[in-house]
Specification:
homodimer, alpha+beta, five-stranded antiparallel beta sheet, two-stranded antiparallel sheet, about 40% helix, globular
Chain lengths: ~325, ~325
């Protein structure tokens, strides 16, 4: 939630002069995205986002994101496109940082999704998985199952148990279990890996856009469904499972794709993995963010509660 | 630069259902304004800002701001209007805070204004001053000449000289001079009191909007021109006076209004006052903002340098 790089309208107007997008008529810094600086831009020709990539995004990964969104768009997925300038360039430099002009998509994110919205989003995730079958590129998952022990060590030395007594042992035991039981036999592909409700744009009950692909990477395809299931199907604090949302999300997915034949046991493992991944990164951010910083620190324990739920419920997918 | 109050799209959609503005299609938190939370809203009918008033704005002042913008709009000034709901209400409550739907104006702020832009803005400020002649309401200037000693005391006890050695004595001496020489004989009116370049929207060389009236108050009318002169006519760090900008701003003003017959000596005093006011509030914010907060701390000394300039240049207005 921040604009880290301040840019002037003159610099933006100068950048836009490289494109066939008309003249600048509005420029507003957007208070979302913790990885990048984002500006809403209106021109005489349309509306766009200008994203300036900050240090948390590896510039070497940008061609991957560009190719992925280009591939998904051409396959009919509802994703924003990178805009090319007159020379066919999509990557620019602004204030010494990589910057891209990106399509603006209408739609708003649901804070409390309806079952219809969850069903629609499950379907769009399945379409994404079908679309990437002939996408040739790979990207390592820096937050994947083999990285959790390192993350736990980094958190533990800074006081993981200060968040909750016994947390260090709990996540260590869980990570050992998951490394052992991770369903490596299941099909892998590029996954979104962060399809929370705030990364889905909706117009009513319909999906108008899937956004924020900066965690997209190669992993077990069904892990993506497990991540979304954990993100969508609970009250924000993780205390209440909302079966009608989870069921609708999976039904929406199944209606489009065969779900890669994942069974209950593997899905439980993947969902436990999803919970541990977000529990750990939230713990890391919690420990490393000053309490008075103007950034909302997301409660890590909301994902410990989800983990508890999946540990006690091995049959989420149903028969 | 922040969105302090997080709201969900469902709450915004529910609020918009009170208005004849169509359905919500986009909602983005805007990273500007330190007083309020601002959201950009697009509906099927148009574009708007949703402003949620945080603790720094006194809710009792909101009817004043509403009346002022209504008055200015009807007088032909380029200001955003508060939007009424179907019951004729412009003031709502969201997350327990006052909130208003406000017209979205096109235009971008200049970081490095041109003389033509300064001329156009001077003219719009003069139109504003002509328009408020028959505006009946008053609002005390909480940052006016009689408040500077208090502000100095608050800053001094927290270490004003830590910003620059001798600063406490310098601002104390200056405030004594200004209280003594303040041109109380000049006409007073409602003034904008914060018409910096970032509060002026431009389309090319034309002004499309004057915004952010939350410091508007009753004071010497020409003080408003002095504030803008100090804000527009220098490099950001205050080291370079740009006479072509200052001259153009004043010429633009004079073309519309008689400048309230302010002379060189009084204008110098008013400009010194403008510099002291922003020097002091920036010192206050500097001292009270942690260096690692995600808020840009504005350099107070940029206004000490402007103060030095006006002290040595008593004939800014020219013959």
């Amino acid at each position: 939630m921040a604009v880290y790089t301040q840019i002037g309208s003159e610099d933006v107007a100068s950048l836009l002069s490289l494109y066939d997008v008309g003249e600048l008529v509005a420029l507003k810094g957007i208070a979302e995205g913790v990885e990048n600086s984002n500006y809403f831009i209106e021109t005489t020709g349309g509306r766009y986002f200008l994203t300036i990539y900050e240090s948390r995004v590896n510039p070497d990964d940008l061609p991957f994101y560009h190719s992925l969104l280009d591939h998904l768009y051409k396959a009919g997925c509802k994703v924003p496109r990178f805009i090319n300038d007159r020379q066919g360039q999509w990557l620019q430099t602004l204030s010494g940082k990589p910057a891209c002009l990106i399509e603006f998509l209408s739609g708003v994110s649901a804070t409390v999704p309806t079952p219809q919205q969850a069903h629609a989003c499950g379907g769009e995730l399945a379409k994404l998985h079908l679309a990437v079958r002939d996408f040739g590129l790979e990207r390592h998952n820096d937050f994947g199952v083999l990285h959790w022990r390192t993350l736990i060590a980094q958190c533990t030395e800074k006081g993981l148990d200060s968040i909750q007594t016994g947390l260090a042992k709990r996540v260590t035991d869980e990570s050992i279990y998951l490394v052992e039981h991770w369903p490596r036999h299941l099909p892998t592909s590029i996954i979104h890996a962060d399809l929370f409700p705030d990364n889905v744009l909706l117009l009513g009950e319909e999906v108008s856009g899937l956004i924020d692909f900066y965690f997209a990477c190669s992993d077990v395809t069904s892990y993506d469904l497990a991540i979304s299931h954990a993100a969508w199907s609970f009250s924000a604090d993780g205390t209440n499972y909302m079966p009608q949302i989870g069921t609708a999300f999976i039904a929406g997915y199944k209606q489009i794709s065969t779900l890669n034949h994942v069974g209950n046991i593997d899905f439980q493992t993947l969902a436990r993995g999803a919970c541990l991944r977000f529990l750990l990164t939230r713990c890391f951010d919690w420990i490393n963010t000053p309490p008075d910083a103007l950034v909302v620190r997301k409660d890590p324990l909301a994902y410990l509660r989800r983990l508890d739920f999946y540990c006690s419920n091995p049959d989420i997918l149903g028969g």
